[in-house]
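Posting this for the archive.
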Amino acid sequence: MMRIAIIGGGISGLTAAFALEEHRRAGAVEYILYESSSSLGGVLRTEHVSGCIIEAGPDSFITEKPWAADLCRTLGLGDQLIGSNDADRITYILVRGRLIPMPDGLMFMVPTKILPTGFSPLFSWTTKIRMAQELLHPPRAADADESVASLVERHYGAETVDRLADPLLSGVYGGEAASLSVRAVLPRFAEMERTHGSLGRAMLAARRKMPRPANKMAYPLFTSLKNGMQQLVETLVPRLNQASLVTNASVQSIQREAGGWTLSAGLKSDHFDAVILAVPALAAAKLLSVCSPELSAELAAIGYTSSITVGLGYDRDVRQSLPPGFGFLVPRSEGKRLLAATFVHNKFPHRAPDDRALLRCFFAGSNAENIWQLSDDAIIAIVRNELQQILGLGAAPLFARVYKWKSAMAQYGVGHLERLDRIERLRLQLPALALAGNGYRGIGVPDCARSGRDAAEYMLKQVR
């Protein structure tokens, strides 16, 4: 029987354990999952306050990537999946202190409709002319990776980087467009430039090929769970062998010994045939520093940023005073510390009673690091001050919650995919080792679930 250690009890490690569970019951494998904290689920944490559902970590997953929704359905949560209220999907960008709605037809910073973009105050006339000329952009095959900012600026100018690319990516990756790899973060953009030249022409061609759903709202942009993202963890964990789940167990080292792996956690050590590292790449680098210094160095080169999420609840009057839509993004050029705020009561049903407003405010990267040492009350004061400046919101919240996530958001820098190729070659030199998590090929919940499942399937192939 193959013995497998899973290090990390976030959604990647839990999904790996779930993929192994059926085979454990059949007597084919045995697994032990080690989690350094007292709870499982990692950043998937939900708090219920005064009838409101507050997400400490991610509030949803993108519908286009199926792996998280598939896992939910496998767990019997299909009827608990809810979609975002896309009929009310308006996202604002803060420009010179004013909230400007993103124009209709803007498909992730690529304009596909001339009139809405032309009349939008979001862009200067110089940028609008640049957007029109972009339709004539010739095909270009890049020889090397580049930053998202470099590609976007080449097509649409620096203003589009500042007002669209950077705020949009900050909300997803917690990083800056100037340092994120276009091939890793927006591979479709690189491919569209190669085949069509113009991103606008390529996006229009892709949209014409897309099947049109019978119901216009059949495919919401985001999917979540009725009772919050922690519902996924609370449903998954009881389906695992409880004796195989070890919390408050920080793994200090793993070593190749006797044709397998010896793992040390606290004062205890154990021997396994295989190891799945479902931890951040930085943590994986430390564990592998002795048995593979080269692999450790490559893993350590994957950057991470921290984030802070603040949930605020307000009364009916505030709810009625807020603008419609999903929320707003803040370009760094605006000089604020907030990067984004979501009007949760508008984005998803079942998140707040009808007489409550629920806001979710977000800091990441240097913006988060600069306030990290402050008390929760001080961070809440910063949020309230900036909401007053941006929204005119002076009312005191009915409740507030602050959640800090240290080095939780992987940064796919320029050359990330080439680094992953080197990591894979080095990993294959270590028998029965698999890597999973948000440091490699996708940071969202669906990508993490896929990576955990793939790691387990890789190990199961060793058994067959």
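The chain is about 35% helix and 25% strand. The mean pLDDT is 94.
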